[in-house]
Each structure stands twice: as structure tokens, then as C-alpha cells.
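[audit] Reproducing an earlier prediction to check determinism. Same input, same settings, fresh worker. If the C-alpha cells differ from the archived copy the diff job will pick it up downstream; this log only records the rerun itself.
[audit] input (398 residues):
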Amino acid sequence: MSLPLLLQGLGSVGLFASRAFLPAFVTALMLRFGPQIPWLAQAGLLSQVRDVPTWFTSDIALVVLGLLAALELVAGRVPEAKLFLDEVYGYLKPAMAVLTYLGVLNATDRAAVGRLIQEAGFLEYLPVLAVAVGTMVAVQIRGPIVAPLVDHDDLGLQKLLGWIGDLWGGLGPLALIVFPLLTVAVFGFAVFLLVLVERRVASQREKGQVPCINCGRPIDPCALACPFCKAPVKEPKNVGILGQPTNRPANIASLPYQLVAVKRCPVCATRFTQRGPRQPCLACGYRLMDDVEFAKGYIRFIDRRVPFVCFLSFLLGLVPILGIIPGVITYRLILIAPYRRYLPLGHGLLLRWGVRLALVVLVAFQWIPVAGGLALPSMALLNYVAYRSVYRNLILIS
């Protein structure tokens, strides 16, 4: 096996940790048409490409991979579709990494693929297994870093990571084929950074816990009771808008609602994992929103945020163009996220798309002085009424 082909296998681990179909499509395009471009034909792995098109670079394969890549890009922008992708990516990404590696191997050394199929020895399968296992590990490393941002997508952080992932998945295969050694080095450094960040996050999470005064086991500093022994906590800490504990003592009356707003259990502050408004806490067993009075109180608690957010949105809206970004982040984080985090997959989809179309019209007036100040609070109210209505119907009517 040649060095460029070995580097291709190693580099694909970093590529497919981000996307499944886009790197495969770009790789197939490069193998099919790269040798026909004079200044690329002798670069990196392309100098070893023989007898294309193959099954991986055929017209049908390119059309199918292109459609799947396009669907992947679109699905990444739709929260409901992205949730489905996240469920299957753990299996899909390693499978596509192996398929792409075999496609590259077939385009550069058909005899090697023939031996792999006919002999089926362990050593022959070792590179393929390494690609599959490496991709699975990379996906698992990436998951704990990216997953916490799902709850705070209203900040735009996950969307930014989405664009970076698209860029990585689109340009990475080109760089890997043309500059394999440099690209693998960059991928290796990126994986190293991810491991460091993962350990840092885990370390900070453990440092943030405090021992229960009754049983001594570590609990969240914002918890009202220990999930293990059920002992009440006398002085829980307040919870921040992103779900992080603060150093200030909490208001016991409002803390349960604050915790639910950041998708945490109102008793033990453990993070909820499901999308539905009614779900059990995995730590203490508390069933969210089974109490109708608590559900009504939660909606009233979020309602009380509306005047302040609308006033702040008005002030930010007075700044043409530049004010819209912090304004949208503010109202989505404070008003919309407490409901949106609990909406099931696909629920209220038509209503939300209708709201988005109305927002496009309002954005058109944001640059106009004074009118821009009214446009942003109108956007906040329109969004809030829509999400509140869907959420209220789920917990009080259905």
C-alpha cells in the first residue's frame, strides 16, 4: 500500500467525523475529474488514479452521492431533521468512511480490492477496520463537545459549527487528496484538541459539583434536593441563563422554573435528555409537567420575562443592521428556548415555518430608523406567541 493511500485512510477519520455524505461526494468528484485537470493530475493521490470511472466514481454513483450530500446540507439546517441525523450518524459515518476508502482503493489499485474480496484474511481487512473504528472513536470524541450546544442553539453557536463542518467536509477531501501529509497532520492536531477540550469539560463538570450534606455524594450546586438520598439542600445556588451555576444564592420560589427553562430537573438539577414536555428525570425520577399547576406556573414565569425582553429588543432595534443580531440572540435565548427545548420532533413545524416567513418581512424594515426599533420587539412577540401556543397545547390540552 502506497503512502498517499495510507494517509487517505488516516485522514478520512477526521473527515467523516464531521459529515457522512459530503466528503464521499467530493472525494468521488476528485477521483473522477481530478486527473483531467493538468495542474492537479500529478498531485498527491491523483497521480495513482487508474481506469476511472469505477463503481465509486460512475455517473450513477456521483448523482446518488450528490443528492445525499445536498440532503445532508439541507437537513443540517432543519432542527427536526438534524435530530434524526444525530441518531444515525454514529453508524452512518463509519459506513461511509469505509465505503469511500474502498472507492479510493478501487480507483488506485483494483487488484487490492480483488484480493480483499477473494482472500478475506484479517491482514487484508485491517486497514478497513482501522478506518471504521477510527471514525467511530472520532465521532464519540466529537459528540460530548458538540452535544451541549444543542440546548443553546438559539445563540447561533451550533449553526456556526454547522458551517465549519460543511467547510471541513467540502474542502477537506480536496486537501487530503492533493496534500495528504499536511492534511493528516492538521486532522491529528484537531483530534488532539478535541480530546483536550473533552477532558477539560469533564473536569469542570466534576469541579462544579458539591457533596450532599446527608450522604456525601456529589450533586449539582443548583439542586433543591439530593437525587440519591432525597435530602433537601438548604442553600442552592442560582442557575444562569445557559444552565451554569452561579455564586449567588437562589430564590427558592423561582429556582424550579429557572431550572426547567434551561432543561434541568426542578428538583435535582440533572439535565433532561428528551425533547418532549413530559419526561422523567433519569437521576431522581421526578416527572416533568405531570403537575398541571406547576405547568401553568412555568408559563406565567416565562410570560413575566416578555416586557423586559421587548424593551431591550426595542433599544437594540434602534441600531440599524448591527442591532438585529444581539437582539435575535437575546429574545430567542430568554423567551423561545425555554419552550423550544421541549418540542417533539416535527411538532408545530408548519406554524414555525409560517413564523419564519413573517420574520423575513419584519427584517426588511429593521434598517429604517424608529421602525427598526419596533420591528425587533414584533419579531420577539410573534415568535413567543407561536412557541408558547404550541407548548401550552402540548402540556395543558393534549
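[audit] rerun output stored. Observation attached for the diff report: The CA atoms of residues 22 and 124 lie 27 Å apart.
[audit] end
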